Amino acid sequence: MKVPSAMDRDAQFYRFPGPEPEPMGAHEMEEELAEAVALLSQRGPDALLTVALRKPPGQRTDEELDLIFEELLHIKAVAHLSNSVKRELAAVLLFEPHSKAGTVLFSQGDKGTSWYIIWKGSVNVVTHGKGLVTTLHEGDDFGQLALVNDAPRAATIILREDNCHFLRVDKQDFNRIIKDVEAKTMRLEEHGKVVLVLERASQGAGPSRPPTPGRNRYTVMSGTPEKILELLLEAMGPDSSAHDPTETFLSDFLLTHRVFMPSAQLCAALLHHFHAEPAGGSEQERSTYICNKRQQILRLVSQWVALYGSMLHTDPVATSFLQKLSDLVGRDARLSNLLREQWPERRRHHRLENGCGNASPQMKARNLPVWLPNQDEPLPGSSCAIRVGDKVPYDICLPDHSVLTLQLPVTASVREVMAALAQEDGWTKEQVLVKVNSAGDAIGLQPDARGVATSLGLNERLFVVNPQEVHELTPHPDQLGPTVGSAEGLDLVSAKDLAGQLTDHDWSLFNSIHQVELIYYALGPQHLRDVTTANLERFMRRFNELQYWVATELCLCPVPGPRAQLLRKFIKLAAHLKEQKNLNSFFAVMFGLSNSAISRLAHTWERLPHKVRKLYSALERLLDPSWNHRVYRLALAKLSPPVIPFMPLLLKDMTFIHEGNHTLVENLINFEKMRMMARAARMLHHCRSHNPVPLSPLRSRVSHLHEDSQVARISTCSEQSLSTRSPASTWAYVQQLKVIDNQRELSRLSRELEP
Ligand code: CMP
Predict the structure, then answer these.
(1) pLDDT over threshold 90, residue 247
(2) In what order do the strands lie in the sheet with 432-436?
(3) Ligand 1 pocket, residue 118 CB under 6 Å
(4) For 256-310, how does the pLDDT look when each residue is reduced to its tens digit (9 = 90+)?
(5) By alpha-carbon position, which residue is closest to atom 6 of ligand 1?
(6) CA dihedral angle for residue 320, residue 323, residue 328, residue 330, rounded to 10 degrees
(7) Which helix (H) or strand (E) holds 750?
(8) Which of 6, 281, 285, 708 has the least C-beta neighbours within 10 A?
(9) Is the CB of 123 under 6 A from ligand 1?
């Protein structure tokens, strides 16, 4: 053992401070020696340990490795690691002493190179803009976040006292030994409260599996909105690509932020970060740090604008924030120059999907900053999108079935509708707004309910009535649906052409749905103040419309031969819809065919050729709901986009996520839930990618909105008849399907056909 020489090197740690000793006699020397030996035997293990730790790892003897291992058994930071991992650690740990309080071990924004365990002493954790956030003590560890996530340091670490001792593991060894077995959960505290809970993403991959991007990262499980944003900004390197896990983190955050961080809070936090100055470092380092941070903020904001686009028009907080930010950027010469060099190129590559977005007119009127995404590229086919600030027709029936049409904001509350009605002649104060379905059932509406016009069910109408007369209301004749079918006209159009026209129409409706509508829909109407789910509701209404259209047309076809012919056409239609990857309408038509009023028409089904019945059975397999619609999900996974998914299932998934998970856990935002919601919402993006969709000629947006209201009203049967073979006639027909949605009436008609 080379203890003496090593002891020499480490003498500073074992020499008592004070004046040089006086020369002493033999007896004194003997006593002194005995004392020293006793002391050494007490302190021996520590001394030997320090000696061992100071040696280059490769030179440690087995005894020394045992000694370090024994020590690790008592250190809190590694308590969760197995003994074999501790043994591996013993071979690589480095001893790093620091003598002076105030020493900066590393700074926020630095590249992570090591993981540290505090062996003796304590450190302060300091972040820019917040200062001291927490103190770590003996047995605690720090610095793993940057290593695991391959991100810059999230905080600055400063020695809180003199003579601190650290055990250090450098990145390469950390990655080899610890990364895969590091504590599953990490909790970051600020001022004694947990602000962020991170979990190592375990994807069950063993060391033999090739590394996949995003593996072995800490992902946010929960946190305060501000801390989640702070971590996101820190993680956003200037050059991350669309496949970077940080991009997914960014997308998760932006898609869901309104659930936990309203725009006002987000804008305030971003401005705070924009102004935050690092406490230490050279002038050069500080300026570089600020410039990087500001670029990250602009990148986040540009994605935010690209995602929400026109939704920000009506948000005064957002527009004033964007203006303020662009002024601040204009005053930062270094940043402005950098942006001019970088952004034209980046803008083309880094766009999240924009549901229907355009920049605010305010921003457009001024010179659009270079870092804002190009705003003139709405999704193809989204020109019929209903946006938050739009006015839509509110058709309100009176008990005598006269109809009053008001143009009101899509997000108007019932109270606002009533206030508008108060301006009309003949209105009395006591009247209430109710919605009435085709069976005549009336449901009262809460004064705070919003968006009632666009959330109406298929043949539902709004009525204004005196409360005592509600039970006397009868549905408007138009709500009852047609009395004559259009089988003859349908006979003129091939199933393939019909499927094509239906699909074109569906694409224009599907493209108008913003991804976040799915999230807001699941959260419920209390979140609808500044948002609308009108496009999603319209699409869902269309789903129901198609179902009932199939059932209605068959029930209104009195002669058995043509009815069987029509049934055959609908089955072929379903097959073509599937072929055209319009799974939503495929399901709708199939559901229509399986309506009890249709499935019971045994004689009609018997008339089908064997081949067609076989085709129907094959198509039916996709409807199998067992194992959570496994057959459908597998089929969908195999389809390459563009594809229109079976929307009710996507909504069901979203509702399950919302209802099955709390938004807050221990007073922190359950970001795991946000991630799940964002993933489901991104399904729309995926389905609409590669979207050179064959679109039929669309009317202007205004006329389309008007048309929608026309759909809500019911016209006479002759208006919807398919009189010619022309595509224009089919196009007009598919947009104005008239249906009976009263199941009792359909059953009655069905019994009339086949008693
Ligand atoms: P890392 O980002 O590598 O470097 C700074 C370290 O500080 C970080 O890893 C965490 O280990 C530690 N830390 C402890 N509390 C906090 C906190 N509230 N915010 C950020 N980092 C913290």
Answers:
(1) no
(2) 403-409, 391-397, 461-465, 432-436, 442-444
(3) no
(4) 999 999 999 999 999 999 999 887 778 888 898 899 999 999 999 999 999 988 7
(5) 143
(6) -170
(7) helix 743-753
(8) 285
(9) no
pLDDT of residue 25: 62
3-class DSSP state of 666: coil
Tokens of 558: 């009195």
CA distance 257 to 251: 10
Ligand 1 atom closest to the CA of 133, numbered from 1: 18
Tell me if 500 CB under 6 Å of ligand 1. Answer: no
Q: Nearest to residue 140, comparing CAs of 123, 152, 156, 127?
A: 123
Q: Which two tokens stand for residue 350?
A: 């880094």
Mutate to test the pocket of ligand 1, among 188, 195, 200 (most ligand atoms within 8 A of CB): 188
Name the pTM for this structure.
Answer: 0.82
Q: Which of 223, 224, 253, 221 is closest to 236 using CA atoms?
A: 253
Quick check: CB of 142 below 6 Å from ligand 1?
yes
Element housing 734 (H / E):
helix 727-735
188 Cβ closer than 6 Å to some ligand 1 atom: yes
CA-to-CA distance for 61 and 269, rounded, in angstroms? 53
- With beta carbons less than 8 A apart as the criterion, state whether 315 and 263 touch: yes
User: What average pLDDT does this structure show over 538-567?
Assistant: 97
For 309: left if phi > 0, alpha if psi spans -120 to 50, otherwise beta; the answer is left
Q: What is the per-residue pLDDT for 708?
A: 43
Whole-number Cα distances in Å, 168 to 76, 96, 109, 165: 15, 7, 19, 10
CA of 156 relative to ligand 1 center, distance in Å: 8
Please report, as a single letter, which amino acid is at residue 634. L
Instruction: Give the phi and the psi of residue 443 in degrees, each rounded to 5.
Output: -125, 130
Q: What torsion do the CA atoms of 5, 10, 13, 18 make, to the nearest 10 degrees?
A: 70
Let me know the angle formed at the C-alpha of 208 by 202 and 210, rounded to the nearest 5 degrees: 75
Q: Kindly state the tokens that stand for 409.
A: 């904001």
